[in-house]
Amino acid sequence: MSVAQEMILMLPEIVLVVGACFILLCPRSLAWPLTMLTLAAAVGAMLATAPDAPVLLMSGMFERSAEVDVLRILICVLTVLVLRYARGYPVSPDRLQSNEFYTLATFGCVGMFLISGAEHLVALYMGLEILALSLYPMIAMVRDDGRAGEAALKYFVLGALASGFLLYGMSLTYTVTGTLHIGELATQLAQLETGRVLLLGMVFMLAGLAFKLGATPFHMWLPDVYDGSSLPAATYLSAAPKIAGLLLLLRLFGDGLMSLAADWTTLMMALAVLSLLLGNLVAIAQTRIRRMLAYSAIAHTGFVFLALCAGTPKGMGSAVFYTLVYALMAAGSFGMLLLLNARTAAEDIDDFKGLNHSHPWLAVMVLILMFSMAGVPLTAGFYAKLYVLQAVVDAGLWPLAVVAVLLTVVGAYYYLRIVWYMYFEEVDRPAEPGQDPAHVFLVSANALVLVFIFAVPQPWLEMSQRVAGVFVGGQ
Amino acid sequence: MSLLGLMIWTPVAAGFAALFLRDPAVVRRWSLAVSLFVFALSLVAVAGFDPAGGYQWQHQVSWIPAFNIHYHLGVDGLSLPLVALTAFIGVLAILTGWNAATRHAAQFFAAFLILEGLLIGVFCAMDAALFYIFFEAMLIPMFLIIGIWGSDNRVYAAVKFFLYTFLGSVLMLVAFVYLALQSESFRITDWHVLPLSSLEQTWLFLALLLGFAVKVPMWPVHTWLPDAHVEAPAAGSVVLAAVLLKIGGYGLMRFCLPVAPDASLAFDGLVIGLSLIAVVYIGFTALAQSDMKKLIAYSSIAHMGFVTLGLFILYRLATETAMLSVSGAIVQMISHGLVSAALFVCVGVLYDRRHSRNIQDYGGVLETMPVFGALFVFFALANAGLPGTSGFVGEVMVILATFQAGWWLAVLAAMVVVLGAAYSLWMVRRVVFGPAEHAEVKAFQDLSGREMLILMALAVPVLGVGLWPVPLLDLIEPSVVQLIDQAQAFKAGGAP
After folding, report:
1. Which chain B positions have a beta carbon within 8 Å of A398's beta carbon?
2. Partners of A401 in beta bridges
3. pLDDT of residue A474
4. Residue A425 pLDDT more than 90?
5. pLDDT over 90 (residue B431)
6. Residue A405: its chain B contacts at CB < 8 A?
7. pLDDT, average across residues A327-334
């Protein structure tokens, strides 16, 4: 393949990087429109250059496939969505709507793009670090808020540690196989006998990723970061990066280390059950919305790991679908939170009290989001749960499925609590959500999409299965 | 759209539309019109139903090929009476709640319409995934009804109701997923013929039983019911008692018995035992209640115990007698739906006047409300199984059948009649008869036209089924025969 052809196929990334640089340098008033333009251009470039079959680029460092492009488009859409939500946030608009913020958000997308296409451990690591290095300053950006600084420092230190774990694991794998290319890794491992060094490498990589994703017992940073950082940064963190994280897992474990599946599924089972247990139980005790959502994120991460435990293409497909639905739910929930905070601070769960009385429409949207999180039918969350359960039971792990569903009953409690605060309680001074019609429209559309996916799930399910197909035994 | 689809989605869509109506008077008329329309459709469905024709009014489209889920509706003799009951109670619930919603009236009626549509969906679904979707989605409107318009302790009751049912249903979901993977289909009729080993059946049976037992509710997972009933508004209690509980009994007939016949046989002692505990122990508990709603709630548990007894006793009977007991159980479900709804309406009538559910706050109601008193006594007697009322038919059928299985079983089962008479009549005596001592009671107005209409509308089928049950029995007979065949078509032998 000629260099020009490769450049064309890398066009989405190139567009994003160039755009990000311009966003940093342009006048402040242009930063927001330029960001939207860059993301739109990246999506356009992706659609225009979509390959028919997966192709390897840059000496096999990256892979471009139409299936994964769909998820990248979703990453762009979610990023646009969360950035738009964040525009209503009144605190420190000089920082949180500055050129720097949008540049970092765009570079974060570059990182996620690289992760989604990486076919080489170094490329994978590079993508991950670009994403992480965009997130650290994003969180720390509100300099006068001590909690934001604390959150950023925590995230940075633990993130660096996790990166260290990951690199160490990668290097151990390299010592055994002599390759960093994920496709070759897969072929080599299929022939090699599983040795201790290899297992050690695998464990380190999994631990590193569990850190990054916030799976118990590596979750400690997550609630503090969700709660401590500025709301826009937390919103950004909560949605699209989850998709990138899943792609990372799929690439590494579903593709590269697939022949070690018998070993890593056992570890993932522990991660899954612990995350579900801790996330769901501790979320009950929270009084702040963001901490509750953080523990809920841990529990949902547990469900994704549960799907991967199945170790089958179906399990991978269900993990993709689950993550996709979760990212939408998280974006919607944070979008709603930003709307609630548009005029007055409303960070406690108590602030939902009486919402039905003052804003019945918004209350219905929150209701949809919460029941979707709980996995109750008439929302997409139900299929997400059903799909994972099906994959898990299909793999013969039905006791695990029973444990998971019992813990979702525990989880249902705290989602219900938001609903009952909105509907059953009435207060003298209910929260005053923002009135920006575009924001209300977007957040409503965000919630209603979950109902739409419930009614017409087939295309989404097929897409998830196809994405999983790219990774499992890809090369 | 098919007839059944129309019956499900008209109220759901109309319910969402009602949310946008501002004027409570308009919302009420709109909801009443929609529920009457659905009821009319249900009569069409009954009129065009051929009892010997198996599943009818079927409508099937592929919905989610990835999971092999179909949008598949249809009714047979087991589900059609329950569909008609739901549509009938739907109208009455709207009438019962006519003036109840002092706030958020639009949401109140919307919740009832959506609930009605989803409940009809539960009975019409022939695809298990669809069944599950309706089964669980229906929790959302019911949760809101109890929580928003309930009395003092409503939050506790609503959350308990939701979590209890959710707990039962998620395990059922795992069972459904397993069955779907084994049969590569979510169609319920495919599951009926799916060969399963006895070990598989045991686990499936227990998961399904838990899901439906919570709903019935069977002792010891019944504790949500008294709370939910007491706290729910009168219209909510009506739907809860008349229809929601029937889903449990229906689920046992549709899933447990035909899907896991070997396990049903193996565990029939357990279910019979739990049913008898419900009949006897819960009967005595009802006797001790001072809150009328709680009393009726416990009475519901006892009567539903009778239903589960009638279903699971079939393994100890000859086919002829088994017919009698299963038909009796179904008649009992319908009858209980009508009678308990009527009793909750009666309590609602009193509550509207006195704002108390305590039996001691009343007495001598007959002096000021003769018509109401007569109707209340009538329904209380129907609850106790007075000959000539629907309550008698189901009870006598099950008790007669049970005699064949053992006289002591029949004696314990007959306790439902004895205790039923005791708590129903004792309540009536303390509320309706005697001298009117409370000044408030002396100032009572007799039934309004609306209240009279509701109670009369309920009295007609109670008497109708009681005096001439043959049409109902004819309607269900072929399906009952099929159910008994399936429940005895043991399949563990042929399984891998």
Report:
1. 174, 178
2. none
3. 44
4. no
5. no
6. 170-171, 173-174
7. 94
Q: To which residue do tokens 């690199």 refer?
A: A167
- Nearest CA-CA partner of B461 in B395, B384, B399, B378: B378
DSSP labels, B32-53: HHHHHHHHHHHHHHHHT--GGG
Give residue limits of the domains in chain A: 3-471
Position B496 pLDDT exceeds 70: no
Q: For residue B106, what pLDDT is reported?
A: 87
Of A378, A419, A458, the CB nearest to B64: A458
Cα angle, residue A318 at apex, residues A269 and A300 outer, rounded to 5°: 55
Once rounded to an integer, what is the mean pLDDT over residues B95-109?
Answer: 85
CA distance B483 to B479: 6
Which of A394, A409, A462 lies at the smallest CB-CB distance from B66? A462
Please state the domain extents for chain B.
3-488
* Residue B27, both tokens: 């919302």
CB contact under 8 A, A420 and B136: no
Peptide bond into A217 cis (omega under 30): yes
Interface of A with B (CB under 8 A): 356-357, 360, 364, 367, 371, 376-378, 382-383, 385-387, 389-390, 393-394, 398, 401-402, 405-406, 408-409, 412-413, 416, 419-420, 423-425, 457-458, 461-462, 465
Using an 8 Å CB-CB cutoff, list chain A residues near B155: 420, 424-425
Structure tokens at B70: 């179909």
Record the tokens describing residue B358, joined without a space: 């305590």
For the residues B117-124, what does the mean pLDDT come to? 93
Q: How far is CA B430 from CA A345, B254, B298, in A?
A: 55, 41, 18
pLDDT of residue A475: 37
CB B292 within 8 A of CB B357: yes
Instruction: Please provide the average confidence, as pLDDT, over all residues in chain B.
Output: 88
CB B329, CB B303: distance < 8 Å: no
Contact criterion met (CB < 8 Å) for B148 and A423: yes
**Burial class, B434, CB count within 10 angstroms (exposed 0-12 / middle 13-18 / buried 19+):** middle
